[in-house]
């Protein structure tokens, strides 16, 4: 089985599909035409550049080309994750980077070494696509988890302070909100796993089938990916929530409410009274 190679003309014809959302935006006066055009242009430019870079990296097959690319992907994912969260604390970008690095690197290394048996360990054909898929899903999970935990802590401040006044430890007074954050971060991947194969055909499996791969092999790889995403999302979310909680914890057994900020806000001075 072979795949149909797409030409620039084929992609130009496919671009005509964008007329549908553009016309809807015009008819309803949504004002999304400019954003849609910019998004389409960025899609073409970014993916075209990525294709050229991947061709070069795959051909070179050297770790000192692969690692910088992975680092750029991790930094971009951490920035995107925090930008999606309405609330954050100082150092959230570094914390998100550390959480994503731990979760995705550990998961990717375990699969490439123990399951796929990639040789060498940095084989770009496996490491780059797998890490990319984990980051794309993991950043959504950690952003949802962080936002939920911090929002709950802010909204439930009176209840938390009441529990502290009654003798509860800081962990006992706050752990329910951390648990809710982790639960919220896990919901998207759990929902996706519930309907995969029935409602949705994931992009990786669809791409492999269109490229001529055996459907059974495509399904096996997709199952592998779903399990990887679940593990990386869970590990990344709980790591980020725990590190953020540690950042909030004050030595005097209270939470540092003053450092929690909403998007586009700056934290209050540390000496501010609440």
TrEMBL record:
Belongs to the UPF0014 family. InterPro entries: UPF0014_fam. The keyword Glycoprotein does not apply. It holds the Pfam family UPF0014. Coiled coil: none annotated. Keywords: Membrane, Transmembrane, Transmembrane helix. It is a multi-pass membrane protein. The chain crosses the membrane at residues 12-32, 39-57, 63-82, 94-116, 128-146, 189-211, 223-245. One of its GO terms (cellular component) is plasma membrane. This is Iron export ABC transporter permease subunit FetB. The lineage of its organism: Bacteria, Deltaproteobacteria, Bradymonadales, Lujinxingiaceae, Lujinxingia. It is found in: Membrane. The keyword Transmembrane helix applies.
């Amino acid at each position: 089985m072979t795949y149909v190679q797409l030409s620039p003309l084929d992609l130009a014809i496919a671009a005509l599909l964008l007329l549908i959302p553009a016309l809807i935006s015009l008819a309803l006066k949504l004002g999304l035409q400019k954003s849609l055009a910019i998004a389409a242009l960025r899609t073409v430019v970014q993916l075209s550049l990525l294709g050229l870079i991947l061709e070069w990296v795959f051909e070179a097959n050297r770790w000192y080309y692969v690692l910088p690319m992975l680092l750029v992907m991790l930094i971009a994912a951490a920035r995107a994750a925090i930008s999606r969260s309405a609330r954050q604390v100082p150092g959230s970008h570094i914390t998100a980077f550390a959480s994503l690095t731990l979760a995705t690197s550990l998961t990717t290394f375990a699969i490439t070494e123990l399951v796929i048996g990639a040789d060498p360990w940095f084989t770009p054909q496996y490491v780059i696509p797998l890490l990319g898929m984990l980051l794309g899903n993991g950043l959504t999970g950690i952003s949802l988890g962080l936002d939920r935990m911090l929002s709950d802590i802010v909204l439930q401040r009176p209840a938390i302070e009441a529990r502290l006044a009654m003798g509860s430890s800081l962990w006992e007074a706050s752990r329910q909100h951390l648990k809710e954050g982790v639960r919220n971060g896990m919901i998207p991947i759990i929902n996706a796993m519930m309907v995969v194969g029935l409602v949705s055909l994931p992009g990786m499996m669809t791409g492999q089938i269109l490229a001529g791969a055996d459907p059974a092999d495509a399904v096996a790889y997709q199952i592998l990916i779903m399990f990887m995403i679940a593990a990386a999302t869970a590990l990344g979310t709980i790591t980020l929530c725990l590190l953020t909680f540690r950042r909030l914890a004050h030595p005097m057994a209270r939470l540092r409410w003053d450092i929690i900020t909403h998007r586009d806000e700056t934290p209050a001075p540390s000496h501010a009274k609440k």
